[in-house]
Structure formats: structure tokens, C-alpha cells
Amino acid sequence: MTTQAEGHRRTPILIPRRLLRTGELHHPAVLDEARRRSEKLQLRLADRITAFAGSMNFVWIHAALFGVWMLFLERNPWPTLTLMVSLEAIFLSTFVMIGQNRQAAFQQSRADHDFETQELELKTNTELTRQIHVLTEELHRRFIQPA
After folding, report:
1. 49, 59, 77, 100: which has the fewest C-beta neighbours closer than 10 Å?
2. Chain segment 89-145, per-residue pLDDT in tens
């Protein structure tokens, strides 16, 4: 049996241009980061590569390619395949770091936005509390003190 929260769970959109086109309600920091990332070609390309490299399609395609390479293209001990896999690992680790940097920038942006919002709410609540206190003192002065 699924809960209501599980029924509304959705897959996160990893490519900023797609996120902006959905029209769904998102945190303002998410939308700002998506706009920033969709402006530059190299960031868009990095997002697409990272989204593909983090998918099961990537795993299946590589398993098939490595299998074909090992069986038909190269014999023992596969020196060219080792070189190719090492180079790919270098590039993929770079994309992982790009993704981590993006996530850190997003978290910082969201934390800043949340802090500003909470500060504004605190100031508003403090002012309302002061006004209630003044009103309470005035009511006591007018209606309770004379008796």
C-alpha cells in the first residue's frame, strides 16, 4: 500500500531547460539556478552528460560495448580497452565534480534564500508582537486601570 506522499513523488528533472519549461512550482533558488545554468552552452552540455552518465542506459550501453570489444576487437590483455576506460573514468569523475559543485552552489543559494525569508518573518513577527503589546497596554490603561 502506498502513502499519499509516495503517490505524489516525482522524478527530479536534472536538465535546467526542461525544469523551466514544466511550469511546475519550484523553490525560487531552484529556478534561479536553472536559469543560470541554461544560459551557458558548456553548463548545458555538462548537465546533459551528467544526466546520461547517471542513468542505467549508460551502464547497459557500456556493458554491451565492453563485451563486444573484449570478445571481437581485441585479444589479451586488452591494452587499448584499458586506456579507453581510464580516459573515460577521468572525464566522468570531472563531471561528478561539476555536479557536486552545482549542488553546492544550489544549496548555498537555497540556504541564503531561506535565511532571508526567515529574517523577514522574524522582523514581521517582532513588529506584530510589539504592536500587540502596545495595544494590550492601551486596553489595560483605558479599561482596567480606572476600575
Report:
1. 77
2. 999 898 888 888 888 877 888 888 888 999 999 999 999 999 999 999 999 998 887
3 state DSSP class of 37: helix
> 74 near 81, Cβ under 8 Å?
yes
SS (H, E, C) 91-138: HHHHHHHHHHHHHHHHHHHHHHHHHHHHHHHHHHHHHHHHHHHHHHHH
- How much is the pLDDT for 9? 57
Q: Under a CB-based contact definition with an 8 Å cutoff, are residues 65 and 72 in contact?
A: no
Q: 141 to each of 23, 53, 76, 146, how far by Cα in Å?
A: 54, 71, 97, 8
Q: Grid coordinates standing for 47? A: 548537465
Terminal CA-CA length for the chain: 64
C-alpha pair distances (Å), 133 with each of 90, 98, 139: 64, 52, 10
pLDDT value of residue 120: 95
